[in-house]
Amino acid sequence: VAGVSAESVIGVDLGGSKVLAGALSSDLTVHHRAQRPTRVRDQAELVDVIVATVEEARSGSDVEITGVGFGIPCTIDQVRGVAVMAVNLPISDMPFRDVMSERLGLPVFIDNDGNAAALAEQRFGAARGAPDVVMLTIGTGIGGGIILDGNLCRGGRGSGAEVGHVVIDMDGPPCQGACPNRGCLETMASGTALMREAREAGLRAPGSALGRALAAGRPLTGAHVTELAHDGDEPAREVLELLGRRLGVGIASFVNLFAPSHVVVGGGVMAAGDLLLDPAREVVAERALRPAKDMVEIVPAAFGPEAGMVGAAALALDGLARQAARA
Amino acid sequence: VAGVSAESVIGVDLGGSKVLAGALSSDLTVHHRAQRPTRVRDQAELVDVIVATVEEARSGSDVEITGVGFGIPCTIDQVRGVAVMAVNLPISDMPFRDVMSERLGLPVFIDNDGNAAALAEQRFGAARGAPDVVMLTIGTGIGGGIILDGNLCRGGRGSGAEVGHVVIDMDGPPCQGACPNRGCLETMASGTALMREAREAGLRAPGSALGRALAAGRPLTGAHVTELAHDGDEPAREVLELLGRRLGVGIASFVNLFAPSHVVVGGGVMAAGDLLLDPAREVVAERALRPAKDMVEIVPAAFGPEAGMVGAAALALDGLARQAARA
Known about the structure:
Chain A is of the alpha/beta class.
């Protein structure tokens, strides 16, 4: 397309409840968004829903689309382009890259959603242009990704860095979902841990706002605990501080391993902002090694719910650039 | 040199008590070794000792030497080629690469000794040719390195992966030396931890061989505890099992992060062999994620005391190949 300098791709964030596709240019202009629910019966129906969503984003935008990136909540075999195992979607050992490339007639690039979010922050967000970045996305679980020397650190067969499943307390509580471990960062510092600790703190302090909310039978959400903490409720603040300190123990291990310039923290729990990050920063200052601990900034993510879509677009832009460099 | 196809370099293992230099070809033939003590007054004297040792290895071998690699027990700034901070040597913010290159008149490549040992095992040893490898060297402390996609993972400014300073027990004992952390893998599973746990086990079981050795005032060494365990002394075996299980917790975190095909374990403590590695393997099978845990082999290092020298030579061979590719 003459006169258009920025390349345009579609970034697709595939989630357990919905698929979000955006046609983006490399300057992050979003030309069109499309979204559909992913409550489907089986893998075949899921593929149809994804294809329809991507086609809608493509036809709705007036730029030429040269590739499609997917962030998938799934372990990935990058060598074969296979989506191996997902917890919340009917995907199992699916040749995702080839299937989508065939259906869409475009080059397709896939990665897990944590890696996509890390790429979004490192290319366009809170750690823009930094070579060494650790990203943690804290929601029900803890996902994320590691970028070293500008490249996603995918590990053996590209199966992805499970940053939430690093142990911080070997005798801690059992981890969540399919993880057979104990005391992983995920089970100690995720939104699920926040709820667990908030219930216990509320029971210990029945007169506090947190305790009264609990006694009233209101379902405690992370947003609610955070709101109470922002309003000055002491037990709610202590819960966030406890979680933040545990997060800091995990981040200190990452700092000692990777000496990143930035640790970016995103996900729903980051509504707590510095109530969570300040204790984490204190622990890293106390516990990590020099000179790495003096070089790292622990910062909130720039992207919220669109991190996955932006990161998936970045995956496609990256992949196309690599293909062009090889040609 | 006509007729010689293998490139030859000098690998230098710089330690707190001695410097060992070997002239090696890329097929691992050692043409000449030289060694000198490193008990020196200051940095200037240390430089002279190193230069003399390298020159001896060079003049003693009859092949052309094209580069020198150094493994240094030190944090390294790869960008500037600076040896930043060493615990056991009079080195501090020293422009090591430039100083040695100037003195020796050869291309010089430096890295910390843990990274050099990892490279030795991945290029020539127990994980030969494997792209994704984690190496742990267990002695007084725990060092090592991480190789991803065939390249050493050096992190920000190349300051090195401190694999021993990943927390496995956030409320565990204070770590060793200059590390301000608690419950690091190093303080839980190093040779120092082995001694600590053996003393306690000996006191609890005064009638055992371990208890009697302790009561006799014989200085307990790791080698001695290992010998008692090999002879079937139950408390000594339990100490090694405890250490091996803690090691497994740390390895499970690395498996979840990097999905390596090999975790290579070396250092003096590996005299215990499978008495240490079998419990570690069990814990990884219990606690790490699929599919990564099914892909990993936990194996003893192939190189003993010469790992550092071989790895330093591999550093030089790698560096020269990279320079040739660029030219």
